[in-house]
Amino acid sequence: MEIVQDHNPSREKLNALGVFSWPIWEKEKSDFPYCYETAETCFIIEGHFIVTPDGGEPVDVRPGDLVTFPAGLSCRWKILRKVRKHYRFA
To answer: What domains appear along the chain, each with residue ranges and CATH number?
Structure first.
């Protein structure tokens, strides 16, 4: 299972997806396991975190990234700086 990351996608792409109308999720510095029952796409407004899939390589996520986590992904989140993100579950 692959995490898809688009660094600094175009404004046109973000508008076409409706990103700025998605809800916002915030989380303070923390470290926790997570399993995606449903695919999630998110756009990072602020913060910095690393997501490490079980048995996979870490993915470094920063502001401006558009990231898609596939359904069924088990991973560990390590939030290094408070995160604010727009998100949508598929």
So the answer is: 4-89 (2.60.120.10)
Alpha helices (runs of H) in the chain, residue ranges in sequence order: 11-17
**Residue listed under structure tokens 């796409």:** 41
3-state secondary structure 69-85: ECCCCEEEEEEEEEEEE
Residue 31 CA to residue 70 CA, distance in Å, equals 20
76 contacts 52 by C-beta, under 8 angstroms: yes
Q: Is 78 exposed, middle or buried (0-12, 13-18, 19+ CB in 10 A)?
A: middle
Which residue type occupies 20? F
Give tens-digit pLDDT for 20-76.
999 999 999 999 999 999 999 999 999 999 999 999 999 999 999 999 999 999 999
Helix (H) or strand (E) holding 87: strand 74-89
Report which residue type is found at 22.
W
